[in-house]
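Input.
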Amino acid sequence: MNVIGRLAFSLGRRDEAPNIQLANEISETENADAVKVLTENLSQKNKAIQSDCIKVLYELGRLNPDMISDYFPLFLSLLTHKNNRLQWGSMIALDSMVSVIPNKIFEKLPQILDAAEKGSAITRDYAVNIMVNLAQLSGHLENVFPLLMEVLEMSPTNQLPRYAEKMLTFINSENKAEFLAVLNSRLEDMEAETKRKRVEKVIRKLSNS
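Output.
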């Protein structure tokens, strides 16, 4: 397979369809050599090829995370790359790996959260996803829950409803009261009615359960 020749940039395309198709084919054939080529080209000078490679890799991670999990250290190192696409693309890739290497991801949470604090909105969103996914696994909820409450307390109001909805997946009788207290404390900050209603819906759902 001519991996680089199949990328959107190489085909003169401006859409992501070729990259998504390539990820699907690599997943179906479990082509480890193709993954190696993609990771090697993340360091090449052409930013368009870098961007296409990271797109294929994180789409592959969503389909078959085992195929990219061996490159965990590489994606972790790219969180501080000067190419913003590689930063947030790597965070998406890391998010896809939580199901297969949760302990490794958890051990590197400080580095992941530091990158999220300094990164774009997409980078922060997927760092939150990583913590939410960890919280759904036994053994990690107790340690991750306080970090997620800090996210709720500090997040911009436009992101708050989405985060609250995601966190519903691990709320239980032991942590419900604290979760509700944080949400109620943020309601007065919310000026956009649609956003406020989404948070109020989460509160009502838990209050009635």
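The mean pLDDT is 95.
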